[in-house]
């Protein structure tokens, strides 16, 4: 749309024009405000995860900016007895959300999937996928994928689920094959090979359903963007039965780390003055690795977080590279509004920390293309994404001819600042 012609490339070298001497942009990035506008882009999708539990905190389907999205991944469905199952029956299909007395299926499913419902009227082209698993419910994927009979059972249940409720496809969120994830997860050395067979089997049954209903069905996955997890997988073979891969380009850092560092940086940091390399994952490294493995660019969707992570008791030293709190030792998770210490939605960051009264100073990492906040008095640090980093990530996806951008998760951006930055750049 010509809004950013002065930014020719999303490269580290060309970001310097946008920052002042303190390393932070002098003004917030202002994307367009979209009223009565529907985002349409055949090349770059904009996918948002809707987490069903956010309804219990007041974020119901009616608040989703469906006009600005091409797809919604509804999170999550569970796995029960080897088949896909409702994640929360009451909120998914039973709770009345108004004007649904005559519908057999109520709840969020009716809101998102009813072709005559209010959301589809706002965006008739919106497609909604059911996401299966997630961090909490990935325990049984290894068992489901292990044998032909279990793969068949699960795949049939996925096609049946789409047909019954009206979903446009399946999003498999296995966290993670072979290693990683929750401690109780089942793992097998052959998970990687079995994963490919499972995806092929799901594709087979979705294609059969497509023939019956005379319409296509989508199959996607959410993939780890950590080298530790994806380096042991045949990425090209995994991608072949898929429409695209949602890269979870976040959670690069947290309280499990030894020092504070960015959680969703676009680029890797340069080695520090003592020779250490503080970042090992980045959006660009993940994308480059997947491309090098043979995954087509248009099947890669960059993931962005609508939340940040906080560190407490940060040991900043004014005389070395830790002066602004980043790459410094810390002790514990910074507590905010969330029940989960260390987790901050962007809306909370915007309201509580991006103001002079908070005592937090905003910094911008030119090398990593990432913002962070540090309070030297309270010794708290928050790594997060803002409108600028969203703009640069969307610009990166666009210039690399990637499949678009995915959001985890929609409730974190209550005022629509982040999604407006993404749509402004992708349009």
TrEMBL record:
**What InterPro entries does the annotation carry?**
Chitinase_II/V-like_cat, Chitinase_insertion_sf, GH, Glyco_hydro18_cat, Glyco_hydro_18_chit_AS, Glycosyl_Hydrlase_18
Task: Give the source's domain of life in one word.
Answer: Eukaryota
Family matches, as PROSITE patterns: GH18_1, GH18_2
CDD domains from the UniProt entry:
GH18_chitinase
Reaction catalyzed: Random endo-hydrolysis of N-acetyl-beta-D-glucosaminide (1->4)-beta-linkages in chitin and chitodextrins
A biological process from GO: chitin catabolic process
GO MF terms, alphabetically ordered: chitin binding; endochitinase activity
One matching Pfam family is Glyco_hydro_18
Q: Which UniProt keywords apply?
A: Carbohydrate metabolism, Chitin degradation, Glycosidase, Hydrolase, Polysaccharide degradation
Tell me which residues make up the GH18 domain.
44-427
Q: Which family does it belong to?
A: Belongs to the glycosyl hydrolase 18 family.
- How is this protein named in the record? Catalytic domain of chitinase A1
């Amino acid at each position: 749309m010509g809004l950013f012609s002065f930014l020719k490339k999303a490269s580290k070298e060309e970001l310097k024009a946008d920052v002042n001497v303190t390393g932070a942009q002098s003004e917030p990035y202002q994307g367009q405000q979209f009223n009565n506008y529907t985002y349409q882009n055949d090349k770059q999708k904009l996918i948002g995860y809707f987490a069903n539990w956010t309804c219990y905190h007041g974020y119901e389907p009616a608040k989703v900016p469906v006009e600005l999205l091409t797809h919604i991944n509804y999170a999550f469905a569970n796995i029960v007895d080897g088949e896909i199952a409702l994640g929360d029956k009451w909120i998914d299909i039973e709770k009345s959300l108004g004007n649904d007395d005559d519908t057999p299926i109520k709840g969020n499913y009716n809101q998102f999937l009813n072709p005559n419902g209010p959301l589809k009227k706002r965006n008739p082209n919106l497609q909604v996928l059911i996401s299966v698993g997630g961090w909490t419910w990935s325990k049984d994927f290894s068992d489901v994928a292990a044998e032909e009979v279990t793969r068949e059972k699960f795949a049939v249940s996925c096609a049946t689920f789409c047909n019954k409720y009206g979903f446009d496809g399946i999003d498999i969120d296995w966290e993670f094959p072979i290693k990683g994830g929750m401690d109780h997860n089942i793992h097998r050395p052959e998970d990687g090979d079995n994963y490919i067979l499972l995806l092929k089997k799901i594709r087979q049954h979705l294609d059969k359903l497509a023939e019956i209903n005379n319409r296509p069905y989508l199959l996607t996955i959410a993939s780890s963007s950590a080298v530790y997890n994806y380096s042991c997988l045949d990425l090209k073979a995994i991608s072949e039965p898929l429409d695209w891969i949602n890269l979870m380009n976040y959670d690069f850092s947290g309280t499990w780390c030894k020092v504070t560092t960015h959680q969703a940086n676009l680029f890797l940091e340069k080695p520090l003055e003592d020779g250490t390399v503080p970042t090992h994952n980045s959006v660009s490294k993940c994308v480059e690795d997947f491309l090098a493995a043979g995954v087509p660019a248009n099947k890669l969707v960059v993931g962005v977080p609508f939340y940040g992570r906080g560190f407490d008791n940060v040991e900043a030293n004014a005389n070395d590279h830790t002066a602004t709190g980043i790459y410094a030792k810390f002790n514990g998770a910074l507590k905010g509004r969330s029940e989960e210490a260390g987790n901050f939605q962007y809306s909370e960051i915007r309201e509580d920390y991006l103001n002079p009264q908070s005592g937090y100073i905003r910094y911008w990492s030119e090398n990593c293309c990432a913002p962070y906040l540090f309070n030297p008095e309270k010794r708290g640090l928050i790594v997060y994404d803002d409108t600028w980093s969203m703009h640069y990530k969307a610009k990166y996806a666009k210039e690399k001819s990637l499949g678009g951008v995915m959001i985890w998760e929609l409730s974190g951006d209550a005022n629509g600042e982040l999604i407006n930055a993404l749509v402004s750049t992708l349009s």
